[in-house]
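Lab meeting minutes (informal)
Scribe: AK
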Amino acid sequence: MKQRGLRGVDLVTSDHHGGLVNAIRQHFQGVTWQRCQTHFMRNILDAAPKALRDEVKAHVRAIFEAAEPATARSLLERTLGTFQDTASKAMKVLEEGFEDATAVLALPAVCRKRTRTTNAVERLNAELRRRERVVRIFPNRASVFRLFGALLMDMDEKWASQKKYIEMNDYYEQKRAKEKQTGKVVSIR
């Protein structure tokens, strides 16, 4: 991606795939990594006893929806205390991944909803797979590029012409204020 001209990246959201996380840390040094909260929630609930999953989910959801990092930390401590004895494996997963899953709390509230998960990418990939299943057998590589290219161009046009997916003005104001305060270019974290 960097060879194709990607630059100015401040935040990357992905699941907790080790190779991907290492690549982000190696090739995008200084970039904030946000662990996908949807995948993280699944990891926590998979480790929780079935009888407690709904209750654990409600507590973790409150952590993710906290207004600021201090509130999230307070809710984390309360959740750990509540479930430590009854769902210890789930609490270990939660505690170990808390910082990565709440990195998005450093952003302005209007930017958080769309950057906290990989849902947009997952939806796009699902649409590509759906189209591929309809065709089933492509006559050659060029036909795959034509179909996927047309779909991606259509999606790009929708994203460019419809309501903005993420309103970034508050983010850029926050970033400029931090840069003015410190006197150097910063990444929001």
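Next up, CB showed the second protein from the same session:
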Amino acid sequence: MDAHFQALIVVLPLLAAPLAALLRGRTGPWLLATLVSWAMLGLALALLLKVQAEGTLSYALGGWAAPIGIEYRLDALNAFVQVLLALVAAVVLPFMHLSAAQEIDEERLPGLYAAVLLLLAGLTGITATGDAFNVFVFLEISSLATYTLIALGQDRRALTSAFRYLIMGTIGATFFLIGVGLLYGMTGTLNMADLGERLPAVADTRTVHTAVAFLVVGVCLKLALFPLHLWLPNAYTYAPSAVSALLAATSTKVAVYVLIRFLYTVFGVEFSFGELPLTSILVVLAMLGMLIASAVAIGQQEVKRLLAYSSVAQVGYMVLGIALATTAGLTAALLHLFNHALMKSALFLALGCIAFRMGGTRVEHFKGIGRSMPWTSAAFVAGGLSLIGVPLTVGFISKWYLVLAAIGQGWWWLVVVILISSLMAVVYIWRLVEVAYFETPAERDRHHEAPLSLLLPTWLLVALNFWLGIDTRLTVGVAESAARALTGGGS
């Protein structure tokens, strides 16, 4: 049975989605989605252990061997990302039961959970497949689910945010598909491993260079690299609270995975960062994103939007590691991909607790909650410490590895940029801490702490932020092995 786990982890949420849509009430669809997410987490962990024991796994759909048939190919990189997706979903969905019931009409809840399952199927399918066109298909499945999830927000602006993302997402997907089409025209194959073998013979052609440009721009739009990030702030701000947490931890991370897969597996390190000027372009855009998005975050009054701009800055850290084109840099990028998902989902869940009691997530809603909602406030502060990169948190681990990678290249100026961006994070996190603990609410009545069903998932993610910041054997070990395999074992 375990031979089919690679396909089952994608098929399970795909089949469960229409069933969730048919169920009625708020508990049935939620319970189904939650059980599916827990099953996916078990499958993802089993596959990761199998990859570590046996190496790269290949699964031929329908018995048709690659490159003629569609291949699901699993190595340390995508097994790592699959664990992240399933882990976040397994924690966020229990939170969603009470949170979504407050923010969304009951008749829309089955559609919500069906869309969540389709999102998981699409994102997991992207990481599972070894076929370039299949990546596009699953990208569209996940995108359509995302547009639906954002549009379910209470504010009418959720509809315009979803529409804006639809337009931008469609442009990105079209660019990606054009790039894949050009590669197929030059090589006659869509299998990514096969593409990696055939491309060197035609790598010097204008067609391949054009394909790289279309693919990189399309994927960077999906991962919200500055200045292609304009869809992200509104999407995170107006989506339901639990949806914001899920999207912030998964969607952009899978897009970062796609960028890594194509630049390192399909095009190869020498071509992507040696023959093409991608290092210079990506480093400049990453640094601009880190600094400008952090500066914009400081002035925000809506905390969801603040965290959204923070995510744009954090994507800069990941792209920076990718652009270094070294084992150390890629290790840092993979670590931050995983760690940022944990810290940002914890922060958004804490915001969900605040929205549940206070009715909003603006800065003024933070007044005095350090006393009235101590557990929620402490969770937000803990997530903020991880975002800043305080020692003993996951944020420190990935930033430390990125600093080491920059020093290894002799780029001391890059270390300064990383430190400046981190100090900016101190400013906008401290601003919220100050309001929560040192200001009193305008109303005399005090709000109560968030329900236990919301606090437990939030604190589980907070605990992971510290546990994996202290015991780094799992995350660093898998990230290093994946990076060595992709870079050929170089420094």
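CB comment: Residues 309-491 form one domain.
No objections, moving on.
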